[in-house]
Amino acid sequence: MAVSQQLIHEAAEKGYNIELAWISGHSNIRGNETADTLANLGRQLGIPQDTKLTIADILRPKQK
Question: Where along the chain do its domains lie?
């Protein structure tokens, strides 16, 4: 099972409902340009792209 499928399965077992959707770039979706800008800024942070996320990372409650 692919890692993403495994994470989604584990989340579902904990009662989370995760839906993935493809959003094509530059398709006049409100906020798309802001998202592109933030993604580009994030790439400049120097965080290794092979950083692994665990299910605990994904399901961690949002900090206030």
Answer: 3-59
Amino acid (one-letter) located at 22 = W
Output helix, strand, coil percentages for the chain, rounded to the nearest 5: 45, 0, 55
> Which amino acid does the sequence have at 42?
G
What does the alpha-carbon distance between residue 46 and residue 62 come to, in Å, rounded to a whole number?
A: 23
Is the distance from CB of 53 to CB of 10 less than 8 angstroms? no
Residues constituting the chain: 64
- Tens of pLDDT along the chain (64 residues) come to 576 788 888 888 888 888 878 777 666 777 888 888 888 898 888 877 777 777 787 777 766 6
Model confidence, pTM = 0.36
